[in-house]
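Methods — Computational structure assignment.
A single polypeptide chain was analysed. Its primary sequence is given first, followed by the predicted tertiary structure written as structure tokens.
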Amino acid sequence: MSNLEKQPHEVVIGDDDRPSIDTGRTTILAPREVPLGGPRAMTVHRTLPSRERSMIGAWCFVDHYGPTDVRTGTGMVVPPHPHTGLQTVSWLFDGEIEHRDSVGSHAFVRPGELNLMTAGRGISHSEVSTENTTILRGVQLWLALPDAAREVEPFFESHTAVAATLGNATITVFLGSVAGVSATAKTFTRILAAQIDVPSRTRIELAVDPRDEHGILVDRASVTVNGTPVARTELAFVETGASTLTIESGDDDARLILIGGEPFGEQIVMWWNFVGRTHEEIVAYRTAWQAEAIGSGEVDARAPRFISTHGDPGTRDGHGYTGSPLPAPELPTVRLLPRRR
């Protein structure tokens, strides 16, 4: 999924965004609504990054959408767009999305299946809800790559998630390890991601690594996390120091997304769909995308970032992308400044 905001936030994330002491404290991050497209756009709820928090482990972006009846709107139509320095995680509760990218991948995102795209030095892709879809509901998550991995060659993988039970709850793990089971997808830092389905009036205690930060996003109903109420679309952030997450549902069955990981010890700059380390890198990424995909500027034929041997990232190569590539927004007129807590 692309960040389609015309004036995307300038975010520099560093060590001052991490808790200075281990407390296990739980705080609530409220979402902001972001339209994904034009006048009849699908609305997504974005909880990360926020004013209160920029990252949870290596997780730097959390979008939550649906349930959306795509028969009455445009559904998800995200034309080809670029990414650098991150991994995109697509996870659905309902519906189906078609994915195509510039390294030749063609896949369908379906409930219970992880689609993981590692952008590395640069990739472009498109995402479109299929004609078979009536209700679309899911999350799009981004993971920042550590410095040692952020220039890897891009690749794509798809995996069926692994399920475990904890009391009456079901935990479906799609990245990392939790509840005694492990997913197989390639990651570059210690992270985890899982869907948790909790029946009504149920309390579970989930053991987690106290060295890690955790977030619990509520997709359906409402819950309490370590005694703190969390409403639908909100994200509960739990600082390092917690060895157990106590989750309790109310009168309705609840569905949650759990993310977590070791605190990310590197400073990153995130703007539009790019993750880098400096303002100058972001400028270079934008320049390369505009030249390669939009035709504005000279392409570095020796080392293009977003066009592979599989062809152009837009409609001109006949690979089935929907629409022309998205042009990048205008860069800010000032240098990126650190985002303070």
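Note: Residues 30-261 form a domain with the Jelly Rolls fold (CATH 2.60.120.10).
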